Amino acid sequence: MQVTSRDATGTTTDKFNCSVCPVRDHAVCSRCNPEEFEQFKAIRRIRSFSKGAHIMRAGEPMTSVGSLTRGSAYLRRSLEDGRRQMVGLLMPGDFIGRPGRREVAFDIIAGTEVQLCQFRIGDFERILQASPAVSRRLLEMTLDELDAARLWMLVLGRATSRERLTSLFALLVQHDARHMSRKIGISAKIELPFARSDIAEFLGLTIETVSRRFSDLQGDGLIRIEGRRKILIPDYLALIAETGDSESWRHEFHGEVCLSSAVE
Amino acid sequence: MQVTSRDATGTTTDKFNCSVCPVRDHAVCSRCNPEEFEQFKAIRRIRSFSKGAHIMRAGEPMTSVGSLTRGSAYLRRSLEDGRRQMVGLLMPGDFIGRPGRREVAFDIIAGTEVQLCQFRIGDFERILQASPAVSRRLLEMTLDELDAARLWMLVLGRATSRERLTSLFALLVQHDARHMSRKIGISAKIELPFARSDIAEFLGLTIETVSRRFSDLQGDGLIRIEGRRKILIPDYLALIAETGDSESWRHEFHGEVCLSSAVE
DNA sequence: CGTTAGTTTGAAAGAGATCAAAGGTTGTGG
DNA sequence: CCACAACCTTTGATCTCTTTCAAACTAACG
Q1: Residue B225's closest CA among B196, B249, B200, B251?
Q2: How confident is the model at residue A11 (pLDDT cuts 50, 70, 90)?
């Protein structure tokens, strides 16, 4: 990897090669011209977080923004008695933070080992003001995330527990397909990026219910649980028939919006 | 009103005076320079829709975008068996449509008599490309909506029916407060922009459950139902204590994000 | 006034949550 | 390499909240 040294907090103190950056072609910086790109290079700071670490915490002042370059993370929000809900999934290339707000609105937790390319918020806002390419790219990404959030609101508001779980699988399959840039086959194997408890938080259910539905779906032959974090989907179409919204999941459209911020 | 004539479909054929436009200071066009503003004037088309009408339908090609200038509308999405969920509330000044996508993702329904200021999508995208002021304003609005959507995901995923209803009331109170630009008092009167069935679709509940919780809250003295579409909240703080997230509702922050696209 | 649509209330059923315990994995130290 | 601890997952039994089905009530409107 490009990180050559690292201090105690996980911040690299020197070089990181943008030209081999895994999100070079779709992050917020992906469409800027060479001089804007140099500005970014000058102010960026590479940091890493270990699995489970809080990248940001709701309520604290927002001091930096940036791109997720490796790993995955999620956005979470809690009620005062501790009930929690995941409200977003962050994958490589996704933007973290909110220009124009001084306070963080959601907890952001590293789901795996994570690498970030961060900018101090003031530095970033200066570039954003000056660069139409950056603000347009960020607009595009934000619109995609908004559609994805709204689509997921339907799942949280109306879907049964079985539908929620199959919807999550469909989302992950499409995600992989897009990321690996290949077609969705009739069968698929997916690596679950979460533990059962994370899945429960994502779906608005308890872990017990999630576990029961896993078993049911396996009993019905719709999935095969292959170890704790891996499942096989023998028939993708049969799976999405259980989501309550198969038409949408079949439709190419979802391939675009359900990814955190996919682009073509 | 400024509309001087109207054809059968509700499209005005001539003048509309932007200088007295009710959303002049916060719509997508609010920050552009005089010449950009002239461009907007040249391509805009004022349309109106009656209560209950579909402004757009999920799946159809997106031919135009624009601003909601009067009335309110909502975004809705359905499962194939007819279960429905509202996924957004549109108030005057809010932007309708999605540059960069050719297909409409959600049903948009007029909640009241509605007036729109529309542009053909191609015309709008041309201005968007050329004008940093417009794309920055749209980015700002979209980021606010994304935060609001995610905040609502917590309600849909985790709140009880009582919490959902009180959260909706809190949202409407804050909305009014912002719109009328006055402080939230200890007591408030709100006009419900929906029927019970709409509230149910918004909250992810059935109308029966909504109705029962209305009665409960009135029994507990937290609200007074004053006619079908009006309620009085004698003690706003007592109300938000029932949301499960009173800290957030008290916090000024929510005054910013829970509005569809408020600006300061 | 009577009709219709919207709202409230009641009783029963169902889905998911909660409480509780047993099974499996993973990791560590002997 | 095995044993044990800690953690995660699955399964079971029961309870609770929301839905469903049904009917009564109320307000608006012709």
Answers
A1: B196
A2: low
Going by C-alpha positions, the residue among A108, A76, A114, A240 that lies closest to residue A174 is A240
- What is the torsion angle, in degrees rounded to the nearest 10, for the CA atoms of residue B196, residue B198, residue B202 and residue B204? 70
CB-CB contact of B76 with B86 (8 Å): yes
Return d(Cα A182, Cα A164) in angstroms, integer.
25
CA of B164 to C1' of D18 (A): 13
Give the span between the Cα atoms of A173 and A225, in whole angstroms: 15
Task: Give the whole-angstrom CA distance, residue A55 versus residue A74.
Answer: 10
Q: Cβ of B192 < 7 Å from strand C?
A: no
Cβ(B89)–Cβ(B45) under 8 Å?
A: no
The 10s digit of each residue's pLDDT in A81-90 is 999 999 999 9
Only one residue has tokens 């017990």, namely A208
Rounded to a whole number, what is the distance in Å from the CA of B141 to chain A's nearest CA?
A: 10
Evaluate the CA torsion angle B202, B207, B209, B210 in order and state its sign.
Answer: positive
Secondary structure letter of residue A87 according to DSSP? E
CA contacts within 13 A on the Cβ side of B93? 20
The average pLDDT across A185-205 equals: 91
Backbone φ and ψ for B89, nearest 5 degrees, come out as: -120, 130
Pair type for strands A188-191 and A95-96: unpaired
Q: What torsion, rounded to 10 degrees, do the Cα atoms A134, A136, A140, A145 define? A: 60
The DSSP output letter for B20 is G
Predicted pLDDT at B256: 38
E-assigned strands of B156-217?
A: 188-191
Q: Give the DSSP letter string of A159-198.
A: --HHHHHHHHHHHHHHHHHHHTT----SSEEEE-SS-HHH
Report how far residue A220's alpha carbon sits from residue A226's, in angstroms, rounded to the nearest whole number. 15
Domains for chain A: give ranges and CATH numbers.
Answer: 18-135 (2.60.120.10), 159-257 (1.10.10.10)
Q: CA B121, CA B66: separation in Å to the nearest integer? A: 9
Distance, angstroms, CA A208 to C1' D3? 30
* Beta strand spans in chain A (E): 45-49, 54-56, 64-70, 73-78, 84-90, 95-96, 107-110, 114-120, 188-191, 224-225, 230-233
Q: Does A146 sit within 8 Å of B142, measured CB to CB?
A: yes
Owner of token pair 């994370």: A198
What is the CA B51 to C1' D30 distance in angstroms? 20
Residue B100 region by backbone torsions, left for phi larger than 0, else alpha for psi between -120 and 50, else beta: left
Neighbours of A174 (CB within 10 A): 23
Q: Model confidence over B72-109: pLDDT tens digits?
A: 999 999 999 999 999 999 999 999 999 999 999 999 99
Which A residues 146-185 touch B at CB under 8 Å? 146-147, 149-154, 156-159
Shortest distance between the Cα of B150 and any Cα of chain A, in A, equals: 6
Contact A29, A134 (CB under 8 A): yes
